[in-house]
Specification:
This protein is mainly α. It has helices at 18-25, 33-43, 51-58, 65-68, 75-86. The protein is globular and about 30 Å long. Residues 22-84 form the Prolamin-like domain.
């Protein structure tokens, strides 16, 4: 498992807020999840986000979203809505 601090270029050294690390860390527990979410973020397509990734994403605190996706506040609700179709009984964003 990679730590977000260990990915070159993702965050400036020493400037990673601890809360942001916690927000991203759960996504790193599912192989390929961060890549699938990144691809979805840039393409607007969600077909590569699998159930395991959706399950982890749906457990994230909504307070993490503005810090994780500061350039597109509409992305997290779109991903969560998509995940609610993939995982039955997963709450959609209200």
């Amino acid at each position: 498992m990679q730590n977000p601090q260990a990915i070159p270029g993702l965050f400036p050294p020493g400037l990673v807020p601890i809360d942001l690390v916690k927000c991203w860390s759960s996504l790193f527990t599912v192989q390929g999840c961060v890549l699938a979410i990144s691809n979805s973020f840039f393409s607007g397509k969600f077909e590569n986000v699998e159930a395991a990734c959706c399950k982890v994403f749906s457990t994230l605190d909504a307070n993490c979203w503005p810090h994780m996706f500061p350039l597109n506040p509409f992305f997290p609700p779109l991903l969560k809505d998509n995940c609610s179709r993939i995982i039955p009984n997963s709450p959609a964003h209200n």
